[in-house]
Amino acid sequence: MSKDAPAEAGLATNVRAPQQGRSKASFERMLVAAENLLASRGSDEFTLNEVSRTGKVSIGSIYCRFDSKDALIHAVQFRVLGRVNEEMLAQIAIAREDASDLADLVRRLVDAVAETLRKHAALMRPLMVRASSDPVVAQTGKQFYAESAEAFITAVLARREEIRHEDPIRATESAFRILYAPFARHLGFGSAIEAAWEGDWVVLKEDISRMIAAFLQSPPR
After folding, report:
1. Which of 54, 91, 104, 167 could form a disulfide with 99 if both were Cys (CB 3.0 to 4.6 A apart)?
2. End-to-end CA distance of the chain
């Protein structure tokens, strides 16, 4: 799926992607400028005039491609999450291939998810905050989250014979939610930004790994 044409997925319909080389270069500068402003501000509190100055593109060129600032942010989100998920899925695949047993797989998967989120936190954080008030951003985020969850679940269920929980599918789905939430909180992915950065990152990864492994390997009551 093209990162430069989010309309293909039906997620950003107010984008007019360019076809020619110079226009594509200008379009790229718009998106990069908006990304940089999101990351540096830690919020979407910037103007299209600032995008124009930062990206060295005219304000008219921006409006030729986007109906509004919201449309630009939607395109940026699709592009950012596309990169995040591409990396996330690749790291999950490596973890699945290299793991020696279920506990080792869980440790590797936790590390893959946590470190990918942390690497891209500067851009994901303002987008996650915006999701609480922007249904398009929320919908897009849920779709990409679902792709990561599916990859995690598939990787764990490949070792179904080592799972002792009476419902492996339910347990694995719960495991991903258990995994994702504390790291999202730690990185400030939400409205309660004051709750972010609590505790030691390495210890958090270790404890989440051990808890999930124990949960999956606990015999039925």
Report:
1. 104
2. 45
